[in-house]
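Need residues for this backbone.
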């Protein structure tokens, strides 16, 4: 047992803290080194398989049975980790990344198992960059792939930005960059309810903040729900308030269970005026308002938003994952309308 003098000694506590930090940093470096070594090793195995096939040996000796036999023999010699499926993924890793350095050293083999499921190079590049930049675990990566984040962002941005999105990931430079169409809230569990209210939706989002943040995107910090504003002796409340670290502004979100109405735009404009005058401090930029509804009439919204100087946006949410075939078809049409030169 340590002496009482050491327990209360500030210098000892600093030592303990520094040792703990050193240990955590060391463990992180070891994990990163193991990840890098694993991906590199599996890439080299994939290269060996492809070179063997290209030399004509596969057809001559094993034909289509090569991977099956190799899996069986490697398992007998080296134990688990060499199922036929895994060996096939090693081969695919090499074919997908013929230059090893183009694969991220910050991602694990488990990340690449998911990324290799994507055939489109632009889409795969986007998720790879986002997983690296935002430090997504495999769970987060799988969720964003299922929600078709790349397609949703690509369809809501300028065509000229799609290639940059694929090469660099999501870049936040202006208010429009934080928007998604639609937002996907499948994690709320509300689809299982016969009826839900706006309050139910708000509570479900707050109760699943980690997944809500993942859907909102980078830069968001939670401030609170039902944030009060007292104006002219009356109390008003904003459903959800965030602060965006990159844009340096408040982001107000108003939730609507059904259709967004024109009066909802006026209400959000009112809230933004208050936040700009009463809540902003030095260094803050203009607040952003997002009205989220299940659907909207675009012509009504066009007239409602016309000549409003505040940054008010309307977007749609859905409580289920997007239909992949429908979104991919829409994306192909979108890209076909405007050919992008990758050079």
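Answer:
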């Amino acid at each position: 047992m340590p002496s009482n003098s050491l327990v209360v000694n500030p210098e000892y506590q600093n030592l303990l803290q520094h040792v703990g930090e050193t240990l955590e940093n060391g463990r992180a470096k070891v994990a990163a080194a193991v990840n890098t070594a694993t991906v590199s090793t599996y890439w080299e195995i994939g290269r060996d398989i492809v070179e063997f096939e290209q030399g004509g040996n596969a057809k001559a000796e094993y034909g289509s049975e090569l991977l099956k036999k190799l899996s069986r023999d490697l398992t007998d010699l080296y134990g688990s980790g060499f199922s036929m499926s895994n060996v096939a993924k090693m081969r695919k890793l090499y074919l997908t990344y013929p230059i090893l350095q183009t694969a991220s050293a910050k991602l694990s083999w488990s990340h690449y198992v998911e990324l290799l499921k994507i055939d489109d190079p632009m889409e795969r590049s986007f998720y790879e960059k986002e997983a690296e930049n935002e430090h997504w675990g495999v769970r987060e990566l799988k969720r964003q792939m299922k929600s078709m984040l790349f397609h949703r962002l690509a369809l809501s941005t300028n065509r000229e930005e799609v290639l940059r999105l694929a090469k660099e990931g999501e870049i936040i430079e202006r208010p429009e960059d934080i928007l998604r169409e639609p937002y996907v809230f499948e994690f709320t569990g509300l689809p299982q309810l016969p009826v839900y209210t706006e309050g139910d939706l708000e509570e479900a989002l707050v109760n699943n903040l980690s997944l809500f943040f993942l859907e909102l995107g980078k830069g968001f910090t939670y401030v609170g729900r039902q944030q009060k504003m007292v104006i002219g002796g009356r109390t008003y409340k904003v459903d959800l308030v965030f602060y965006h670290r990159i844009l340096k502004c408040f982001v107000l979100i108003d939730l609507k269970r059904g259709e967004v109405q024109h009066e909802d735009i006026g209400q959000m404009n009112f809230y933004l005026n208050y936040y700009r005058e009463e809540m902003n401090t030095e260094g803050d930029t203009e607040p952003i308002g997002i009205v989220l509804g299940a659907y909207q009439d675009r012509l009504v919204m066009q007239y409602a938003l016309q000549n409003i100087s505040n940054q008010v946006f309307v977007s749609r949410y859905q409580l289920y994952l997007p239909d992949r075939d429908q979104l991919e078809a829409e994306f192909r049409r979108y890209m076909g309308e405007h050919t992008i030169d990758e050079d």
